[in-house]
Amino acid sequence: MPILGQNIDDWSIRAQLKTRIEAECGAVDEVLDYELCFYDVQHASVIGLDRSLFAAARLDNLLSCYVGIEALLAADGETTALMVCNDHEEVGSLSAVGANGPLLTRVLEQLEPDPARYRAMIEASFMISCDNAHGIHPNFSDRHDDNHGPLLNAGPVIKINSNQRYATNSLTAGYFRTLAQRCGVPVQSFVVRTDMGCGSTIGPITAGETGIKTLDVGVPTFAMHSIRELAGCADIDYLQTVLTHYFSRYQASDVQG
């Protein structure tokens, strides 16, 4: 629980908010409504004896959004590419702007309004769903299967789950491994322990909504969902390198069933 102070005369959130707004923006007559969240305001830091670790708030999943945007900007523009950053992933994705909403499908339908050509476009498409993966935390190493424990700074992680909590299959994983090999980037895999529940991503949701071949991959991190998360600096570069190649060189013929 957050600590806001001690011995405050008026604990009314509306009154406190009105006071803050007036101090920063000028007088207001009334606060009609509000959406408030607490979040860490410390700057991100590169840490470690060899400065190989990156600590920041909300790495899950602002890190993937940043890497994806940088990769798209660095691409050569020769291949048609689209990036979508959805809100509300952590609360189920069912909203107007969530992955379980109509946003992506409507954009794709605007790009190709002809139904037959739209279906052909979907069939020729490939989606990489990027969301951070759980690295082996030294305090909780027993939570991982011995053969599937991602290490920081050892490459992006392909996430696999037979219950479709992740959208990866052998076809989409094989394609990503091929991309990584072409770029000289190492790749890891993650499968949750069979006696533990598995989280999910927007990958299965979007794949189910659109019918596009999908892979789930992400940068391994420590302390996911904590106020301060930790990732490897090299993994950020690794993932950006592969995504830039993907945005520049994707060909439907490269992914064969």
UniProtKB/TrEMBL annotation:
Recall the GO molecular function terms of this protein's record: aminopeptidase activity; zinc ion binding
Q: Name the UniProt key words of this record, in alphabetical order.
A: Aminopeptidase, Hydrolase, Protease
Its BP terms in the Gene Ontology are: proteolysis
Query: Membrane-spanning residues where?
Result: none
Q: Does the keyword Hydrolase apply?
A: yes
One Pfam entry name: Peptidase_M18
InterPro entries from the UniProt entry: Peptidase_M18 (IPR001948)
Q: What is this protein called?
A: Putative aminopeptidase 2
